[in-house]
Each structure stands twice: as C-alpha cells, then as structure tokens.
Amino acid sequence: MSRPQKNLQESLPGIDRIVQKFWPEIRKQGFLLAVSSFGLVVEIVAQLLEPWPLKFIFDHIIVADARAISLQIPMLKGANPMVLLTVFTLAIVGATALRAAAAYIGLVGMSLAATRIVTDIRAKLYAHIQRLSLSFHNQAKSGDLITRVTSDTDRLREVMVTAALPLLVNSLTLVGMVGVMFWLNWELALIGITIFPLFLISTVRITKRIHSLARQQRKREGAMAATAAEAIGAIEVVQALSLEGMLESRFSRQNQKSLEEGARTQQLSAGLQRTIELLVAIATALVLWRGVQLVLQKAATPGDLLVFITYLKTAFKPTRQLAKYTAQIAKAIACGERIIDLLDTVPDIQDLRGAIEAPPFQGAVRFCNVSFAYNPAKGILQNLNFEVQPGQRVALVGPSGGGKSTLVSLLLRLYDPLEGQILIDEHDLREYKLESLRRQISIVLQDSVLFATTVRDNIAYGSLGATDPQIFAAARLANAHDFIMALPQGYDTILGERGATLSGGQRQRIAIARAAVRKAPIVILDEPTVGLDNENEQAVTEALERLTQNCTTFLITHDLTTSQQADQILYIEGGKILERGTHSELMSLGGRYTTLYQLQVIIDSDRSNQEGSYVLKA
Ligand code: ADP
User: Fold this and answer.
1) Domains and CATH numbers, the chain
2) Least packed by Cβ within 10 Å: which of 65, 491, 561, 608?
3) What pLDDT sits at residue 492?
4) Which residue's alpha carbon is nearest to atom 26 within ligand 1?
5) CB of 118 within 8 A of CB of 22?
6) How many angstroms does the Cα of residue 417 sit away from the middle of ligand 1?
7) What does the pLDDT look like over 517-537, one tens digit per residue?
8) Is the per-residue pLDDT at 8 higher than 50?
9) Cβ 446 vs Cβ 507: under 8 Å
10) Is 121 in the pocket of ligand 1 (CB under 6 A)?
C-alpha cells in the first residue's frame, strides 16, 4: 500500500514494453494478424447488427403505428408484413452466422499468430540464456530460468488468445455500441453510461491489488521451481545428508504461500465480477424506467428500447470480462516483464566490436599483469605474469582455493581480467570472436559432464559436425573405443543424465574423446584423474598423454608426481604465483613446492606401506 498508484501505472507501460520488445516477432506474423483483425472487425459489426432485425420486427410488424417515428426505410414502406417477417428472421440467422464465421477466422488466426510469436520468443530467450556469462549464471537459479523459458512464455501465448483477444473485441464492440446508442437516443445513452465512473473506480482499485499479487505469486513460483531443481539436481547429496525433510518444509512453505496468493487473487476477481453485474442491473433498470416513459410519449419506439437493452447487456460483457481476465492479464504482464528483464541482461563477456575470427593458434600463451576478482570486494588473482611456449606443459599446483581454476577460466574467456592482458600468440584474447577462441581450447574436468544423449553425440559435441571415423579415432585415442563397443548399443547407447550410467573412469575417457575430436592446440586439464581407481587412472593417464601430445597443456593437479614431467610448474597460492620453474628448479629452491612435495611423498609412502607395496611413481 506504500505505492498506491504504482501497479496500474506499471501494468500499462508493461504491455507497451512487451509489444515494443517483441515487435520484430509480432511483425513477422503481420499477414496472419491482418487477416484475423479483419475477422474481428467483421465480428464486431455483425454483433452491432444482431438486435436490429428484432427492432424492425417490433417497429414495422408488431407495433405498426410506431413506423411514424421509427427509422424510415423507404424500401420497407408498403411491403407485405409476412415477407418482411421472413426477411428479418432470416437476417437474425444471417447476422449470427456472419459473426460466428468472422469470430472463427479471428480466433484461429490469432491463436496461430500467438503460437508462432511465442515460439520465436522462446527460442530467442533460450539462445540468450545460453550466451549469458558465467558471472550471471553463478548468481541465477536454474529452476527460475527454466520457468521463464517454458511456462512464462506459454502464459504469454495463452493470455494473448484467451484473454487479450476477447477483451480487445469486446472493448471495440463497446465503443461501437455506445456510438450507436447515442445516435439512437442520446438521453437513454447518457443514462446507460452513468455507471461507467463507478465501474472504473472499482475496477482500477481491485485490478491494482490483483496485479501486485500476481507478480508476487509468479516470483514465488520461480523460487519454488528453483528450490525443487536445486534439490533434484543434487539428490545424492540431499539423501546422503538427510536433507529431505528440511527441503520439503522449505518447499511446502513457499507452496502454501503461493496457494494463499492464488486464492486471494481469485477472491478479488470474483468480487469484482459480482460488483459489475450489480452495476449492469442498475443501468438496465434506469434505462427501462426512462425508456418506457419515452416510448409512451412516442419519443422512442419499442424497437429502440429493445436495441438499448440488448446493447447494454452485451456492452458490459467486455467489462465483465475485464474483471475476469484482469488476473490473467496481470500475470501475463508480470511474465512478459520477467522475460524482458532476462533478455535485457547484457552478457558481460561477448565479442567486442571489430572482433575477428581467430587464426589457427600456435599455442603460445602469455599472462601480463593479470588481476581478477569475482566481485570487487574480494580480489582473487593478483598481478600474474608468466609465459608458455607452444607445445609446453604447464602444471598449476598449490592449495585449494588458490586460484588455479580461475586462472584457466580466464584463458577460456569465461571471465575477463579486471586488469592486464592475456595473449595467445602475442594477441589479446579479446581481439577474437569468442566462439573461434574457445573452439581452439579443449578441456577435461575432474567430473566431466556428459549429456543425456548417445555416446556418439557426446563425443561429437567436441566438434560439431565430426564424422564417424573422426569420432572413432578420438575414442581410440581416449582408450574408450573398446568399452563403448561393449555397451548395449555401442556408440548409439543413450547415456543417463550427466552420464550417470557409466563409471567415473569411463566418463572421463568419453570426455577425453570429446576433447580429442576438437583437435585443439591448447588443452586444459583440471584434475582429470582425481577419484579414479588405479586401473582407470592408468587408462585415463595414458589417454591424456596422447591427447596432449604437441599441445600447449595446462594441468591443474594436486598430484606432484604428475607435475614432475611438466616443462614449467606454477605454484599458486592466495591468487599469486609464488614459485615458478621446473621440478628440479623448484626442488632446489627449497620453498613451498619442496615442502608440499616432501609432504606428499610421506603421505604416499604411508599409504603404500599400508597397502603392502610401494608404488610411488616418482
Ligand atoms: P583452485 O582452483 O585453486 O582451488 P579457484 O580458482 O577454484 O581455486 O578459487 C579461487 C577463489 O575464488 C576461491 O576463494 C573461491 O572461493 C573463489 N571462487 C571460485 N569460483 C568463484 C565464483 N564463481 N564466484 C565467486 N568466487 C569464486
């Protein structure tokens, strides 16, 4: 209540904003919209004509002496009453048939146009969400985003057809009817519209409240979807930690609130409808009271009165519907606004103006004074400087949270540095189109994400358009071909969501095949062997060896035995490179790397002794 005027004022520009934003999509359906609009206009005219045959029957046939004051139609003078009756009764059927046909064309055309428009909007929204930067996605809730793509867009379509369209037709009919009423008898017309101000006051007041409730409810539905998606996405953890009860009660609190808001909206809307019905009854009574007097004074005909009463009843249909559909339209506006807010979010990372296709990289990488922070309050990487020659292997080591993954995500341009430059072959990353930059970098993560599609597609996602021989070669390189062939449908086996039907090592090998098919000169490996058993680790390590042959490789690892083979080791802690060099250089330095290494040797030998054998690879 602190913003009394805001809701209604907001709702109208809301429609304007939605139309403006989606004008290109709407314009594309111009022809369909024009045809259906024509249908609507014919429907409105037919509706205005509907009571007229009845008026003529009253004035010309039943009450014959009213002809003197009735609308004079020369053709009708002296005509046989039975012929007239036949003509007028046929006209009643004709007007209704015309209205039905026109309404059909209007409705079908509009539905089709609305479906096409919303399909386009949905595609645009989905494409946009996928391109939004990680800095956005880190904050956003995936369930809420999904609601916007699926149900928010659908509500727009539904409302266009089931609420906005009838409302438009009826509002125009109302204007037409008021015009005809004034033309027939201004005094009765004035009486008829006296209830308008009352109607406006009650509608505006209640609509405002419905609108804000609808918005709140929509937001809550988004939050509910987010809670559910989060829990279902992490169901393993939820069950392992026995969080079901807590999450259920959080969900049910939101669910309950949403229900209450929904019920309140319905209640307000139902109340408004009843108020309007009462107002219409009052208007009809007033018109009848004065109308009959006019008829008796021969200042109007019974047919005129008939047209008036019919019009009053029909004319207030749109107002009744306005009340009925207010909630729906307000909701749709809120949905539209949510969609637009998302579309208006500009990706932080996008092609700069004048960005060019990256040429095939040699693979030289240089970080010059690079600093970065996820949020300005907390710096993560501080003034990093290092250089990597083409084909070199760089190991990034150091304690967790030091900034290793952040460093490689800058190389992929998932984020831009706050200061400094990252150069590939002596050119700033930002000079290149994102897609052409990322196409030349392969990545294998600790827990590789596979998609719920065939093994073949999962590998081909590394390089869209890869042929079967390329896919098979990549799978062989990744030590994956044999186990794939042993799957029930080989390469056509459909994987469970996130590759859940495979073992960790198998998932990693498919991810390596996906990286291999890309044939990228730069490879990023983020602890790819962590959590694998010995046998799988060996197969994966072998595959990685082959994958990284002749590639500039960044390997994030906690296993300092693997980092020994690196051409260069960066020891990163607290967002800084504290030590840099080859294994022997760093060992002779006797600093943190040496300490970490010695610690690991002790831990590994302890573990091996427990297992009864000494398998330190060093
Ligand atoms: P490492 O890979 O060395 O373990 P990370 O690069 O993952 O380290 O993390 C470095 C720091 O950045 C940590 O303090 C971590 O909390 C923070 N961080 C990582 N990712 C994000 C993110 N998406 N948003 C905010 N902070 C993050």
Assistant:
1) 15-343 (1.20.1560.10), 365-593 (3.40.50.300)
2) 65
3) 92
4) 374
5) no
6) 14
7) 988 999 999 888 887 777 778
8) no
9) no
10) no
* C-alpha–C-alpha distance, residues 125 and 119, integer Å: 10
Name the band, by pLDDT with cuts 50, 70 and 90, for residue 83.
Answer: confident
- Ligand 1 pocket check for 374: Cβ under 6 Å: yes
pLDDT tens digits, 218-267: 788 888 888 888 888 888 788 888 888 888 888 898 889 888 888 988 88
| d(C-alpha 383, C-alpha 461), whole Å | 35
**Pocket flag, ligand 1, residue 403 (CB < 6 Å):** yes
| Burial class of 140 by CB neighbour count within 10 A (0 to 12, 13 to 18, 19+) | middle
| 3-state SS track over 260-286 | HHHHHHHHHHHHHHHHHHHHHHHHHHH
* For the CA of 135, the nearest atom of ligand 1: 23
Tell me the C-alpha distance between 476 and 457, whole Å.
16
User: What distances in angstroms separate CA 586 from CA 48, 442, 570, 582, 592, one per listed residue?
Assistant: 92, 28, 10, 6, 9
Ligand 1 pocket, 380 CB below 6 A? Answer: yes
The neighbouring-strand residues paired with 366 are: 387, 423
**Closest C-alpha residue for ligand 1 atom 7:** 405
Q: Is 575 in the pocket of ligand 1 (CB under 6 A)?
A: no
* DSSP structure string for 513-582: HHHHHTT-SEEEEESTTTT--HHHHHHHHHHHHHHTTTSEEEEE-S-HHHHTT-SEEEEEETTEEEEEE-
Tokens representing residue 566 in the block:
């690196």
Closest to 383 (Cα-Cα) out of 172, 572, 129: 572
Query: Cα–Cα distance between 324 and 330 in angstroms, integer?
Result: 11
Q: Can you read off the two tokens belonging to residue 512?
A: 């390596």
Q: How far is the C-alpha of 209 from the C-alpha of 267, rounded, in Å?
A: 11
